[in-house]
Amino acid sequence: MSRRAGMAAGVSGVVTALTLLAPATSAAVAPSPTPVLIEAYGDSTTLGITCADGHCGPQARNAVTGLQQALQAHDGERVQVMNYGVGGTMAAQLRDGTGNRRAGPTAGLPWRERLTASPARIVLINYGINEVMQNQTPAQFYAAETTLVQIARELGKEPVLQTSNPMPDKRLNAKLAEMVAMTRRVAAEQRVPLVDQYAYVSSLPDWKALMSDGAHPKPELYRLKAEQDYRVVEPLVRRLLDDTP
After folding, report:
1. Model confidence over 44-69: pLDDT tens digits?
2. Range of the domain at 163
3. How far apart are CA 233 and CA 38, in angstroms?
4. Are 118 and 154 contacting, i.e. CB atoms less than 8 angstroms apart?
5. Which residues cross the membrane (predicted)?
6. Between 243 and 135, where is the model more confident?
7. What pLDDT shows up at residue 13?
8. Is 5 inside a domain boundary?
9. Is residue 198 classed as helix, strand or coil in its secondary structure?
10. Does residue 14 have a pLDDT over 80?
């Protein structure tokens, strides 16, 4: 064999070897899994306020953190839950972009603009207590929650409504029950998932002992609320995970 023919054969052999290796190399690089982001919006019971010894403040063992821990234990770390709860706020403020303060990088934007900029696949919505405390009417609350749900759906998000936990004061709790009825109505009319925390907590024996004050649960009750959230949210997460690479 001539020197030139030998060189050609050698180059051809190298090209063939690289061609054979290329598919194996490409197959070994798997695409990054698509995350499933959940955003939780609500008042101080979403934020995770607990009161003790005359002091109230957010604490780590809240319902949103508990939900993320349960989801990640079952579905992996590609599931993330962001807590955008803000104390003292109402559903109408979330809709209008007022009262959001430091709740996320898009705080202060109206709901439509905020969700347009959000990569969230699922949004949790939990209001009612401050509507009672700030003398909102059930009709106003109904209108605000309906708008929140409709916009979320228009933007391709999966909204999940949550009723508030009950309040120990009988008079305030009776008013809260009217707000809860509105949340249930919106969920039924818009056909969205509902976590009925009001009904669940009210059914617990001596549930008032699980409250740290007139509105905020103790960590033990936040844990129980997280379990109820998980029952409703996990099937939605599983469906999204099954539909994404």
Report:
1. 999 999 999 889 999 999 999 999 99
2. 37-240
3. 9
4. no
5. none
6. 135
7. 47
8. no
9. helix
10. no
Indicate the angle between helix axes 219-243 and 63-75, nearest 10 degrees.
Answer: 40
Q: Which of 64, 31, 79, 103 is nearest to 217 (CA)?
A: 64
The CATH number given to whatever domain includes residue 233 is 3.40.50.1110
- Cβ atoms of 54 and 61 closer than 8 Å: no
Structure token digits, residue 35: 């995350």
Residue 1: what pLDDT?
A: 52
Distance CA(9)–CA(46), nearest Å, equals: 71
Residue 140 identity (one-letter amino acid): Q
Number of domains in the chain: 1
Query: Is 6 domain-assigned?
Result: no
The model's pLDDT over 97-114, given as tens digits with 9 standing for 90+, comes to 997 555 555 668 999 999
- Is the residue at 4 inside a domain? no
In-domain check, residue 67: yes
Given a contact cutoff of 8 angstroms between Cβ atoms, the answer to whether 156 and 118 are in contact is: no
Residues 211 and 218 sit within 8 Å (Cβ to Cβ): yes
The type of residue at 18 is L
Query: How many angstroms separate the CA atoms of 197 and 233, rounded?
Result: 13
Contact 202, 166 (CB under 8 A): yes
- What strands lie across the sheet with 36-42, from one edge to the other? 79-85, 36-42, 122-126, 158-162, 194-195
Question: How far from chain centre, in Å, is Cα 100?
Answer: 16
Task: Give the end-to-end CA distance of the chain in Å, rounded to a whole number.
Answer: 52
Q: What is the pLDDT of residues 20-43, one digit of tens each?
A: 444 444 444 545 567 899 999 999
Please choose, from the candidates 124, 126, 125, the residue with its C-alpha nearest in 3D space to the C-alpha of residue 71. Answer: 124
pTM here? 0.85
